[in-house]
Design the sequence.
């Protein structure tokens, strides 16, 4: 059974993942699934990974906003932003690991050199192969950037030109992706 490339229309073997003509990803054909019904019970359907990631972003925004309301602002503290970021990370790590939602866990927060803070997340039920990074970036990164630009609780980061990194690993600890929001992006 052959399939044609949606980009160049070249016929390729059904086992191929990429077009032999243009290198474009070929559509994955799924086998028809039947759900067993035993005594009227149907198993729950899994949620779509993109929806889960979008939910994670919104939960993160709420978590971040709530946390910054409870902590002193960075600009009111001593002049060393890196030292203050270390304090923020240490405070947040007291509550880690933190289950953000049913799929995402905030593992820890790290203060990095050059006014950078990194949030390390783990997606409990997903592997790297189950995630389409282009689609995730299309929905997740704009929300992260909007949060950095507009969230009143992120003002201390904006005022001190803090770079915010979001690091994601899959359930096996394998790196999935990382999003970086720099001061140039949110100003």
Sequence:
């Amino acid at each position: 059974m052959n399939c044609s490339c949606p980009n160049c229309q070249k016929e390729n073997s059904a086992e191929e993942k990429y077009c032999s003509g243009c290198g474009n990803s070929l559509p994955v054909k799924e086998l028809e699934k039947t759900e067993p019904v035993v005594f009227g019970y149907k198993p729950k359907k899994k949620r779509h990974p993109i929806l889960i990631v979008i939910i994670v972003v919104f939960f993160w925004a709420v978590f971040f906003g709530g946390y910054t309301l409870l902590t002193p602002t960075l600009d009111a503290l001593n002049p060393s932003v890196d030292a203050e970021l270390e304090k923020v990370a240490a405070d947040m790590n007291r509550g880690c690991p933190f289950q953000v939602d049913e799929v995402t866990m905030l593992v820890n927060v790290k203060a990095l050199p050059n006014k950078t803070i990194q949030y390390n997340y783990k997606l409990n039920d997903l592997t790297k192969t189950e995630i389409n990074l282009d689609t995730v970036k299309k929905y997740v990164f704009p929300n992260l950037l909007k949060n950095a630009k507009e969230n009143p609780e992120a003002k201390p980061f904006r005022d001190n030109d803090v770079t915010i990194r979001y690091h994601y690993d899959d359930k096996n600890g394998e790196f999935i992706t990382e999003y970086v929001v720099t001061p140039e992006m949110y100003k």
